[in-house]
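Colleagues,

Please find the record for the three-part complex below.
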Amino acid sequence: MSKMLAPHIRTEARTGRMTMDVLLAAIPLGLFSFVNYGMRPVFILLLSVLAAVVTEAFCCMVGRRRLRTVLDGSAAITGLLIGLVMSPMVDYWVPMLGSAFAIIVAKAPFGGTGRNVFNPAAAGIAILTYCFPLRMFTYPAISNVSNLPIGMTVADQGVITELSLAAQLQAGATPSITRLQLLLGDFAGPIGSTAALILLAFLGYLLVRRTVSAWVVLPYLCTCALMAWLFPMTNLNPSYDIMAQLCAGYVLFTGVFLLNDPVTAPRFWLGRLFYGILAGILVMTLQRIGRVEAGSCFAILLVNAFSPIVDRWSWHFCHWLTRKRRIRREVKAHE
Amino acid sequence: MSKPNTTRRHLWRNTHLFVENAVTNNIVLIQALGLCPIIAAGVSLQNGVALTACTAVVLIPLSLFIALVGNWLPKWLRPVVYVLLASLLLVATAYVLETYVSAELFAKLHMFIPLMAVNMLYMRSVGVSSIINPIGTVVDALGSTVGFGVVICSISALREMAISGTIWGIPLEYDVALPEVASPFAAFILLGFMAAVLQWSRQRISAFFHRKEAESE
Amino acid sequence: MPLFQRGVVLPFQKGKALERGIESLDVTGVRLPLAAGDMDSPISHLAADTPVACGQELCRMDDTPVVSTVSGTLEGTVAIHHPLYGSLLCADIRADGDAEDRLPVLPEDELTADVILQIARDAAIYDELDGIPLWEKLQQWRLPENDLTALHSVLVADATENDIFGSSAWAVVMEQPKLAFFGLQMAARATRFSRYHIATMLPKRRRRTLKHAIGRMNVYTVGDEYPVTLFADRDDEVYRIGIQACLALGRALKQGLRHTAAIVTVAGDALPAPRNLRVPFGTEIGALLTACQAKSGHQIILGDSMVGVTCSDPHTPLLPGITTVLAMLPRPVRVPGPCIGCGRCAAVCPAGLLPYEIVRRSENMHYERLQHLSPGDCDGCAACSYICPAGRDVAAEVLKAGQTKGTVFLNWGEDDYE
């Protein structure tokens, strides 16, 4: 019989729906930051997404690709993720610069959606972390702020700033945040990476929708927890310490968003497992000894470089195993 | 074959050799040689020009020298002789730079000039020089120098503008200071983009010269 | 819902056809293949307008008899091109008689292996899984007496029908389980296998009825993933025949009937309702669809919705090897997007390949590195194309890559890829 094939029926799953699922994160996290800080973080998110989309459209025109590819939403995700790790009092141009950099340098030259080697959002965050650590890591104290000024800059307007949790841990201080506050994200930090409960709930949503694979994120979280348990950063109760380390910086955020970008993660299950473990080790190490308080974007860029080779080697390993098993079975059957 | 035709063919061939090293098969962007000085020292236009000058002073005479006497030396000895001679020339260059040009500039570059002696840029020309004729060697060295110079000067000018808002020490009319550009990643990104643009256009340039060469035959 | 993704689970739409049971369809004429290729007519001894009986042997095709599937009048021969079997020389028979030619029925204790094979050949039983004559398959698998490999070998009657629409095998095991199982027993006797079972994926209640009818040990429940990879326990060597072939063997042995009719699921979104029909071989697909009131403008697909072949000519005859005929309305054209690396194709691949990587390497023309991924192991189940959220034809590309040898594309000039 001929092997001509086109399945005459296809799944309901679409790439566009997967990106829309991730973009949905803007709603709970945007609301959360709106309640905490007022309109300013919402504008930051909007401008960041806008910058990313406009840059992507520009790159599409330069590269003579169809402009429709902008609509698949991957550029918007990049912009959104960069916006979510900004400090609420950052100047508006900072996330826009990051988004533009992410698209122009980390995405378009590699061939656009689906071909980029490095996670564009991680690249954008990394460049901002490297160039403007002061702007990135100055957070307003959450107890005193209900409405940040919306104007261009808030540096001179008497906003009380506070050390973030990650900075406190890195400095060896004992944080005075309760467990409930940790879960609710009720402490100084970036716009969208403090609300642990929202992030975890969203992760559950993505897992149920099959948008992300559990093979990456569960090993990652387990490794992070294990690292936190093995190397405590405070002398408090171990369970509190693990919780604090997981909520500090971008650890959870990385697990939910940056790590799960399907383009840059391995695609084979075993490769994903290794990738998650490797990322967990690197993220927690950088969190502890890094130059800046939240270096997980560098960790992600580093593991992204390994991702294709991890993917292929793990597949070859599995393939070799199955082939060996098959041959052994055939030999047994022959005897 | 008449004489003028031969001359023209040689002319085109040498021009092609030059263009190949300078542009289409650029020593930095395509062959990825001599990256170290660009990434580490190419942070101001003055540095770039000084390093280009160093390259020219060392590369051109040495290539000629190797082309003339290199074939008499055993193969394993050539790089050794080459590095020794390059070091000698560089010592002289450094002396001239410090005494007559600018001590300040030398202070910035004093670490990179000795490193130039073992640059792969020169090592490559050891191999090339012993294959092609003396004129070709000089043209080749000239092309390499120009290729290297263009890249390092443009990158260092861009980085200088970004770092301090000046070019050749002259302040420009804007106020942006991004000192982080002095770190290697900016140079890598710039190199990547320049290489991409070159890859995009080199086919056409190369085809033009091949056609010209064929026409003069 | 498991967190870690498994294979494809197809959204079955079989219920309606199963409720109606197997219906018979009267036909006005059939077109039967006599020989492959453009040969001279092998039935020149039968002139036009000769009356033929249902079950009468017309000629032999590779040792297997070609039997008339209706009783009527021979009209002549015609050469056609069949999308599955290539060029065929066919005989047209008008159905206007009621004569029937039956095989002699032997008592069960006289049925030795050779006798069963002989009857399977005389009854012209074809395996509906691949369209090969049943006796050829059985004879090829047949073991010498007292062979120990019989312990590891299982003869499986495949009633899984793991397709969205197709339900003919399900209907067979629900309506005539005993006769089909008798056929399977006899086939196992012919091959001297000591182990045999019917593999099904029926829902729970229907499975219980089936187990009640033929015995618990003789039903093997397969997983609901597409494609089915395990038809028996992991260590066993599986020999697969179709359930309709088993039924036909049972009918031939018990009732002396030849294999003249196929049970076909006619379904698709161009039909008001899917149906299971018992139709003689050689019926025109178009007549079949007209009988089911198909809307106009549909596209005919021979075979299931995953690996079926599109067929442009409605006069194509229904031949053994086809258990599903689909009439689908044209889908809106979807532009395939870029691969975003969700990895689902690798998760669902039954051969354990990396389809995305094979496609990437073959797109980037890394043919020399393609062979490390063993694309030749692909058997074209198209699960990867089904699951791909970007809408790419992954399976087609993998199959194409499987045909490369080193750095050379074997079908280089062939323009079969749009």
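The longest strand of chain A covers residues 139-140.

Comments are welcome before we finalize the supplementary table.
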